[in-house]
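Incident log, entry 3
Record: Nucleic-acid-binding protein from transposon X-element (499 residues)
Problem: checksum mismatch between cached and fresh output.
Input:
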Amino acid sequence: MDSSQPAELQNQVVEPEVIKKPRIPPFFVSPKGDWRQLVALAKLIAPSFQSQMSGRFLKVTVGDELEYRNLSHWLEQTGVEFKSFMLKKDRPIKVVIRGLPSNTEPEDIKSEIEAEGFKVAKISQMKNYRSKAPMPLFYLQIENGAEAHKIYDFTELFGTRIEVKPFERGNKVNQCWRCQGWFHSSEVCHLPPRCVKCAGPHSAKDCTLDFNDQMKCANCSGAHAANWSRCPKHPNNAKKKNQSKNKNKNGPNKPKNAPPKKTTPQAPRPDISKARKVSPNLDYSKVVQNQIPREHETWLEPGIDPQIANYRLFKDDRIEFPHTVTRGGTAIYCKNEIVHNRVPLPATPGIDATAVQIKIKNAPPLNIISAYIRKSAQSRFPSEDFKKIFNSGSNCIIAGDFNASHVDWHNVKNTRYGISLRNLVSNLRGAKLVAPQTATHLQPRQRFGSVIDLAVFKHIPYNHSVRVLSDLSSDHYPVILEINLNTSLIKNPEQLSTN
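Fresh output:
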């Protein structure tokens, strides 16, 4: 070592950069015929070949990308029945274009985008789930590449302003259009085709089944289509059935002659059996003494934008392919007299969100984010997605349906989401959780309401108030949040406020 170098440099240890090895997806091969000869030949193609049984398939793994491509090509050429998954670098970028009229030809859109140097692998116009009517939403698959991510920079097409957003499947289980199996796609499926309508060995477009003929499921042989969400073999339904069995098995046995349980009469609760889950569920939030009506989980059909006089609508629909449903989605109505502009947000699969930045008087710019945090039985609180939204601006208010209950904000019990949110807020610098004192959400079978419509402040050192209106037009009460910019700054705001 050179003694002329400073002692600090001599003692400094340079750690080698760790290069993460790409994950190579496995193959699932049908072990038909002389499968031992198949394994012997496959090892000549891919020396790192390893296999073990997984259900009714032979699960095959290889060591690197080159062996994966060689083995995939050889299995396809020899006619072996198998399924696999695409390499990460081969997966197309899936986007949705919004802002064009519904009568725009998809091929015209494809030509315009390809003229900019992108390769469009697939394009289709999205349709309404019930009426099958075409909507002003176009689904595209862009071939992956070094410049493919620049598709999100598109803001105009045919002289019309558009939005290009990532396609999000949500919690929907992926089903193959070729074999009707789950958890893989048809692009890398080489199993025998099964018709989604009659379970025959052909594709749906070649099916001769009449409209009035009885369908047959390729998975359970029931009298329904294979893509029916209530199929007994559907992964979600099978999981619920197993959970119900375990609950009944492990639950306490009730004695046959047990005395009847005494019940305390409860006060009558509002009838929400006919509650509307559409645009009447508006949360009119008075932010900084100017009305900014805000919706969360709009349940509005994509492409349907209800207008309010003197307000501008910013709306993000929940997009699910091949059809869309009136579930989720967020929106913000901003008064025209307020200086405002839309704020782009990063992709957050676990949170539906819409963001607008406003500027009032001498106050610093303020980001208003309407958020709906998705929830399912097996999911965890999307902390990383929440941090992305929280870091979208120096001063922001994130408000909406968080699906998080905690005793700290007047709930009967803690939920996983509530505990995670409480811990997250306590660790975020400048964060403050704001909650009303009364229930904001009711369900027909709930004995007590829950406080799950919340707000999280980031560097908002002003006095505020929050209250719930007793106007039950859906299963959520409207919540009013007021910020007073005319008051003096709060030097040490608490992390939790339930005023």
